[in-house]
């Protein structure tokens, strides 16, 4: 049982690193907003507070003059 728990914790740590990499690698504002939205909907935002804060700062600073309704709605969430 302990071995299974250790493997699950190791896998969770790997997946969290993958998500952190996604924050670093994503330069598109829409993809960034989708990523933040998905993480929040999954209830995992407490694991990524720093990354979400930095991403939202980038979104706030981005130019939104030519985006469609979906992007505008995501930005307002």
UniProtKB/TrEMBL annotation:
GO terms for molecular function: terpene synthase activity. Pfam families: Terpene_synth. Residues 6-75 form the Terpene synthase N-terminal domain. It comes from the Eukaryota. This is Terpene synthase N-terminal domain-containing protein. It comes from Musa balbisiana (Banana).
């Amino acid at each position: 049982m302990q071995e299974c728990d250790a493997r699950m914790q190791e896998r969770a740590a790997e997946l969290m690193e993958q998500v952190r990499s996604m924050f670093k690698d994503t330069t598109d504002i829409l993809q960034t907003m989708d990523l933040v939205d998905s993480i929040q909907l999954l209830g995992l935002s407490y694991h990524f507070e720093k990354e979400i804060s930095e991403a939202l700062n980038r979104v706030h600073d981005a130019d939104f003059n030519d985006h469609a309704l979906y992007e505008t709605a995501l930005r307002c969430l």
